[in-house]
Write a structure and sequence with these properties.
The chain has 486 residues and is of the alpha/beta class. Helices cover 39% and strands 23% of the residues. Strand 8, helix 6 (162-173) and strand 9 form a beta-alpha-beta unit. Helix 2 packs antiparallel against helix 4. Bound molecules: nicotinamide-adenine-dinucleotide (NAD). Nicotinamide-adenine-dinucleotide binds next to helix 8, strand 11 and helix 9.
Length: 486
């Protein structure tokens, strides 16, 4: 826990030009332990001079870092991978402290981030180009991939280690330098990630860390030395960043919000589907872009399914994330808990049936809210359309797979979607026709592994090249084609 000499919550530092620095910012944001409601740190909203300092140092570092052989760049990442492995418990505890999710969820998220570092260790192979001899008489042709320059990464509160690690390892492995602007709600894990990175001996300026909110992000996007921008956040923030960065000719990938559907066919194995759906909807207290938010039950699956979901969700152990056996931790802030709880009123007013009301288990002084389930919702209701980002699951009942697909595909968002069935034909129809980026078959949370691209469709993603996998390498490089005759 960050505490200053006076006993007050410590103010986080920023990192620029290879050194940790105290910000001279006048404005700060409080950081909470959501399980206790206590302020544990304060984040400075970095000044314009501090943001410029980080970008200029990143650009100066880029001029040398780009010349470092990919094999040597990879060795820093091998060392980083070992450090992350050794500090996994510490990082998971930090995540639980500032985010609230259970230690098990926190561990899993560090592991998934670490796997991107492992993927980036293969950069010498990933960067290789293509060659064709004799494209004409005595003429050969080959491609090379070169780094772009200073890349910026803007990350959300819900995965304080994993999402930055979607970006940072590939950005620097490709020869770019990276300015990291973490969520203002989660500075502690971000700080530790950057501290550990510098224990690898990484040259000064290759990775910097600045704090702030929208004004600092806008300054980063507008800075002429910034060439690429990645953001993961709500669709409103992602769309705004995409438009601003694209208008300035920057490369941009902008991953937005989600409203993920889980279709349950009548032949689904409920012993498998129910735990998968409850884990998907209520894991990390529903604060996941891959969370299942709407179950579409195809008749006659409805009654048995809803009863089993209700019983299992009601039994989830709600407790601070570091308590033994905890399954449902608190929400990130009091304001967010209240916003999520408000949807329970909205859904009931819209006419859905609240079969499990998490408000009966809301506890303080932490930001706890129990699991909630609505049954017999309609697709046009707000609870079925809007991202709630909390432990609320909405069930819509339909008569056929075609009707289920129509419900899923009318969503404005398309991050992920899953089907539960034993029928290969139904699964194939679903995976072919569904309009979303990441699809599961009998999988509640279909998160692609590091070697695959990660992003949604429609209002869940703005850009072309997704995060991680070969798309990640393409995003962080420019391609050149060289035609040669001697
Ligand atoms: P958020 O949009 O409030 O903030 C995300 C980041 O953007 C933060 O660093 C924040 O400081 C910055 N930001 C906020 N408003 C901005 C603006 N107007 N202009 C520029 N920058 C701005 O999101 P959050 O509440 O931290 O995170 C939760 C959201 O992130 C959810 O919508 C969730 O679905 C989404 N998310 C998406 C993915 C994905 O892969 N698509 C992954 C994780 C989270």
């Amino acid at each position: 826990m960050a505490v200053s000499a006076t006993g007050a919550p410590a103010v986080c530092r920023f990192h620029a030009g290879g050194a940790w620095r105290a910000s001279s910012a006048r404005e700060h944001v409080d950081v909470y332990n959501p399980a206790t409601g206590v302020v544990i740190a304060r984040v400075p909203l970095c000044t314009r001079a501090e943001v410029d300092q980080a970008v200029e140092a990143a650009h100066a570092a880029f001029l040398e870092w780009r010349k470092v052989p990919p094999l040597v760049r990879a060795r820093y990442l091998f060392r980083y991978r070992d450090l992350l492995e050794r500090h996994k418990d510490e990082l998971a505890r930090l995540i639980t402290t500032e985010h609230g999710k259970t230690l098990e969820d926190a561990h899993g998220s560090v592991q998934r981030g670490l796997e991107v570092v492992e993927f980036a260790c293969g950069i010498p192979t990933l960067l290789m180009g293509e060659t064709l001899e004799q494209v004409s008489h005595g003429v050969d042709c080959h491609t090379i991939r070169q780094p772009i320059g200073v890349a910026v990464g803007i990350t959300p509160f819900n995965f304080p280690a994993m999402v930055p690690l979607w970006m940072l390892p590939l950005a620097i492995a490709c020869g770019n330098t990276f300015v990291f602007k973490p969520s203002e709600k989660m500075p502690l894990t971000a700080t530790r990630l950057v501290e550990l990175l510098h224990e690898t001996g990484l040259p000064a300026g290759v990775v910097s860390l600045v704090h702030g909110t929208a004004p600092q992000v806008e300054q980063l996007i507008d800075h002429p030395l910034v060439r690429a921008v990645s953001i993961v956040g709500s669709s409103a923030a992602a769309a705004g960043v995409y438009a601003r960065a694209a208008a300035r000719g920057k490369r941009v990938q902008a991953l937005g919000g989600a409203k993920n559907h889980l279709v349950v066919m009548p032949d689904a194995d409920l012993d498998q589907a129910v735990p998968a759906i409850v884990g998907s909807a209520f894991g990390s207290a529903g604060e996941r872009c891959m969370a299942g938010s709407v179950v579409v039950a195809v008749a006659p699956a409805g009654d048995a399914l809803v009863e089993r979901l209700r019983a299992r969700a009601a039994a989830l152990a709600m407790a601070p994330g570091d308590a033994p056996g905890a399954e449902l931790g608190p929400l990130v802030t009091a304001a967010h808990r209240d916003r999520v709880a408000q949807y329970l009123t909205v859904g009931a007013d819209e006419g859905a049936t609240l079969v499990l009301d998490g408000r009966t288990r809301a506890e303080g002084p932490g930001f706890f809210l129990g699991a909630s389930i609505f049954d017999r919702a309609r697709p046009d209701m707000r609870i079925a359309r809007e991202e709630i980002f909390g432990p609320v699951l909405t069930v819509i009942r339909v008569e056929s797979l075609a009707a289920a697909l129509a419900v899923v595909n009318q969503s404005a968002l398309g991050n992920a979607a899953s089907i539960f069935t034993r029928d290969g034909g139904a699964a194939r129809t679903f995976t072919t026709e569904v309009e979303a980026g990441m699809i599961g078959v009998n999988v509640g949370v279909p998160v692609p592994m590091a070697m695959f691209p990660f992003a949604g469709w429609k209002g869940s993603f703005f850009g072309d090249l997704h995060a991680t996998g070969k798309d990640g390498v393409r995003f962080y490089t420019e391609q050149k084609v060289i035609t040669t005759r001697y």
